[in-house]
Amino acid sequence: MFLDVTAKRNPNLINTAFQLHRDGSIYPNTYVLDMDAIRYNARIIKKEADKYNINLYMMTKQIGRNPEVAKAISESGINKVVAVDPWEALTLGKAGLKIGNVGHLVQIPSHMIKEILVLKPEIITVFTIEKAAEISKEAKKLGIKQDIALKIIDDDDLIYEGQAGGFKVGDLLESAKKINELEGVSIVGVTAFPCFLYDEQTKEIEKTRNINTLLKGAKILKESLGIDVKQINFPSANSTFSIGLIKENGGNYGEPGHAFTGTTPIHAKKMEGEIPSMVYVSEISHCYKNKAYTYGGGFYRRGHVEKAMVGKSFNEGKNNILDAETISAENIDYHGVLNIEDKKAEVGDTVIYSFRTQIFVTRSEVALVEGIQEGNINLLGIYDSLGRKIR
After folding, report:
1. Is residue 252 a contact partner of residue 269, using CB atoms and an 8 Å limit?
2. How much is the pLDDT for 329?
3. Residues 6+ apart with CB under 8 A from 166
4. Is residue 15 within 8 Å of residue 350, measured between CB atoms?
5. Closest alpha carbon to 107 in 157, 165, 52
6. Signal peptide position in this chain (predicted)?
7. Which residues pair with 205 in a beta bridge?
8. Among residues 206, 190, 197, which one has the least CA distance to residue 101?
């Protein structure tokens, strides 16, 4: 999905990935991250956000909730994280990162609430009155009042499978009244997901109907209950290409994630904005019936893997691009499959992919590298897919 644009905009990253694999510094099934490019991306994202007075939380699940990458991003001034689940919040909070938003997309389990509250999150997103009550109870024990955001939904909204839940607009007023009676929480925000998506037809980022639902909810809270809605959070596809749309559509918060590695869908089409800064490295395991099998573990079912570069060096690989077969979500990704046809593939050859991923759900390793653009390669360390340093 991103191989062509990465070869054009960040060829040094691919060259470095070849070198690290050829000399044995990294194994196959490793994502290589260009830390300097990520820092650059964070800076231009923050600059765009400041232009429109938009507040941002960084999402890190796609890069394996890695605390060192999060710290690098925080240098830009985007210094609070949004945790996709409470385990991510604990990983990053214990590493010293400031916690921005927890509970969206995954609610905090009952017996983890106290542990999360101790991290002092700026806001917690809730889907139900019951969860707000649980948070209130634990907050009172700690002598604090926790700010919360309500996830707002409606019947016609776009909701991904497995992500349903929230306060329906028609029931919002009564639900909010009951939550307002809780002493340990305070409603200060609203959110929904996804609020923006890349449109293959228009080739631009477009708002979803979820935004209209979200704004209806904010209006009800303000006008009927007098709630000061400080956060109107529009997550999904947040990048330099869409931050202005947050402001244009009435929001004031966003949650960029893939933008930091230049791997949102729009980045596959643009030669500007955030720089692609992540590739996936594998190796030819074996060949069979004109197909090359690569070591897997890091393929993601929504990755849109199209092709890979194969060879013993970047110069060799850029002239030897093999088409990839789609990997069925029904099977474990022990291997990736490439069609050899009139190309070359030998056992032990390096394979470079660049596709959309979510590292935290893979079995991959993650290599953090500095100095790529200057040719002064510094491998900072190898981490697992959940942000723990391996070596």
Report:
1. no
2. 79
3. 127, 150, 151, 152, 153, 192
4. no
5. 165
6. none
7. 198
8. 190
The pLDDT value given to residue 118: 98
Is residue 22 a contact partner of residue 348, using CB atoms and an 8 Å limit? no
203: phi > 0 → left, psi -120 to 50 → alpha, else beta; which? Answer: left
Tokens of 145: 């009042």
**CB-CB contact of 194 with 158 (8 Å):** yes
Bin 273: left if φ > 0, else alpha if -120 < ψ < 50, else beta: left
CA neighbor of 166 nearest in space, from 139, 132, 206: 132
Upstream peptide bond of 194 is cis (omega within 30 degrees of 0): yes
Q: What is the pLDDT of residue 158?
A: 95
User: What does the pLDDT read at residue 303?
Assistant: 75
| Contact status, residue 254 vs residue 56, Cβ threshold 8 Å | yes
CA distance 24 to 39: 26
Q: Identify whether the C-beta of residue 144 lies closer than 8 Å to the C-beta of residue 121.
A: no
pTM of the model: 0.96
Task: Tell me which residues of the chain have a pLDDT lower than 50.
Answer: none
pLDDT tens figures, 301-311: 877 899 999 99
pLDDT at res. 51: 98
Pairing label, strands 307-311, 350-353: antiparallel
Q: For residue 380, how many other CB atoms are within 10 A of its CB?
A: 16
User: Using an 8 Å Cβ cutoff, are 182 and 208 in contact?
Assistant: no
Tokens representing residue 256 in the block: 């960029």
SS3 string, the chain, reads: CCHHHHHHHCHHHHHHHHHHHHCCCCCCCEEEEEHHHHHHHHHHHHHHHHHHCCEECEECHHHCCCHHHHHHHHCCCCCEEEECCHHHHHHHHHCCCEEEEECCCCCCCHHHHHHHHCCCCCEEEECCHHHHHHHHHHHHHHCCCEEEEEEEECCCCCCCCCCCCCEEHHHHHHHHHHHHCCCCEEEEEEECCCCEEEECCCCEEEECCHHHHHHHHHHHHHHHHCCCCCEEECCCCCCCCCHHHHHHCCCCEECCCHHHHCCCHHHHCCCCCCCCCEEEEEEEEEEECCEEEEECCCCCCCCCCCEEEEECCHHHHCCCEEEECCCCCCCCCCEEEEECCCCCCCCCCEEEECCCCCHHHCCCEEEEEECCCCCCCEEEEEEECCCCECC
